[in-house]
Amino acid sequence: MTSTHALARLLANKRFPLSAKYDPEWVMKCEMGPNALWLTELLAERIPLKPGMRVLDMGCGRAMSSIFLAKEFGVQVWANDLWIPASENWQRIKEAGVEDRVFPIHAEAHSLPYAEEFFDAIVSMDSYQYYGTDDLYLTHFVKLVKRGGRIGIVVPGLAREFRGRGPAHLGSYRACFDFHTADWWGRHWGRTGLVKIETAEAVPGGGRLWCRWEEAQYVAGTRKRDDTDVKVFRADKGRNLGFVRLVGRRVMSDPVWT
Description:
There is one protein chain. By secondary structure, the protein is α/β, with parallel strands linked by helices. About 30% of the residues lie in helices and about 20% in strands. The chain contains nine helices and seven strands; from the N terminus they run αααβαβαββαβαβααβ. The N and C termini lie far apart (about 65 Å).
């Protein structure tokens, strides 16, 4: 079996019929972490997306998730990222034929250039953990979505909170203090009173999905044979690492704090 066929086999997952339509080599070329198409499809299961909606894709990386959202749901997407230049993403967007629906923006999470209540929905895949664990971040971020609109994220997560460092087999992941459980994230957002939590759950089989993605990277040549990430996920077997899916709906009236 060629590496191309092996890669296609690893990325072909009946759980993600929309993602399966995309060229595996393109997916690998655009990757910046766990498969953004899988994570976006997981989130779309919990957020109703309709043609014409304005959506902020926060931390979009190489705009793969933004292109996917525009193509599969007909929404308009503001593809916001700090690490990837907007001009680079614009080229990918044009090549994908969605330049009328996806708009690349280069901006840092604490300096976003958007009007309040501009978006119908906000999504973020494998990004929010870098800035959103701040107790005050949601109080500013939520203002960008319309009242009644949804904010949804999929982030790397834990099956349980660790006291101190995690199990030794997790290697460098033992120090990922921005990884938390679904319960932690639900409390983190819920205590603000700014959103009604609709979904706060560990993605079923998330650890296995992540491991499969790491294996696919090895097949594609983006990971070395002795890559530590592959070893970690093989050893963990989904016991600790996975993904958290969180969706909150902005309340119609903000709470009054005293």
